[in-house]
């Protein structure tokens, strides 16, 4: 039941969107027990982000939400992977990317809760 939402300041065409979705789908398996089979991905392009008080350079804000919990080491690895994906695919520098992790205790799906 993971979710990865990315707000990026660049335009993302359909081809780039597919690559991002695929690579983020692979990346989520960094967290034990998580896979693309349950992953939902959201991408908001052309998002207005101010970083360090300005818009000088492409930026990203990413939220990773999971049902349950993981460890600091796993989140550290996933941060590196997500930053690499955004840099490779969209040219967003690692030092202009923030990633927020949220562990969810209650998650609803299909008319019920886990």
CATH H-level superfamily title: Macrophage Migration Inhibitory Factor
**Secondary-structure element order, as H and E?**
EHEEHEEE
CATH class: Alpha Beta
Strand-pairing-aware structural class: alpha/beta
Amino-to-carboxy terminus distance: 9 Å
Rg over alpha carbons: 14 Å
* Number of domains as seen in the coordinates: 1
Order of strands, widest sheet: 2-1-3-4
Count the E strands. Answer: 6
Furnish the topology, listing elements before pairings.
Layout: E1 3-8, H1 14-27, E2 40-44, E3 60-67, H2 72-90, E4 97-104, E5 108-109, E6 112-113
Parallel strand pairs: 1-2, 3-4
Antiparallel strand pairs: 1-3, 5-6
Helix pairs in contact: 1-2
Description of the structure:
The protein contains two helices and six strands; from the N terminus they run βαββαβββ. The protein is of the alpha/beta class and 114 residues long. The protein has a single domain (3-109), classed as Macrophage Migration Inhibitory Factor (2-Layer Sandwich), CATH 3.30.429.10. The strands form two sheets. It has a four-stranded mixed beta sheet with strand order 2-1-3-4, covered by helices on one side. A two-stranded antiparallel ribbon has the order 5-6. A hairpin with a 2-residue loop joins β5 and β6 (112-113). The model has no long low-confidence stretch (mean pLDDT 96).
């Amino acid at each position: 039941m993971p979710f990865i939402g990315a707000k990026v300041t660049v335009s993302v065409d359909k081809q780039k969107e597919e690559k991002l979705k695929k690579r983020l789908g692979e990346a989520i398996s960094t967290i034990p027990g998580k896979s693309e089979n349950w992953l939902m991905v959201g991408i908001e392009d052309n998002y207005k982000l101010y970083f360090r008080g300005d818009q000088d350079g492409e930026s990203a804000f990413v939220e990773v939400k999971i049902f349950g919990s993981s460890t600091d080491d796993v989140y550290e690895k996933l941060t590196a992977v997500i930053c690499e994906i955004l840099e490779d695919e969209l040219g967003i520098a690692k030092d202009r990317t923030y990633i927020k992790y949220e562990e969810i205790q209650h998650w609803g799906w299909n008319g019920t809760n886990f």
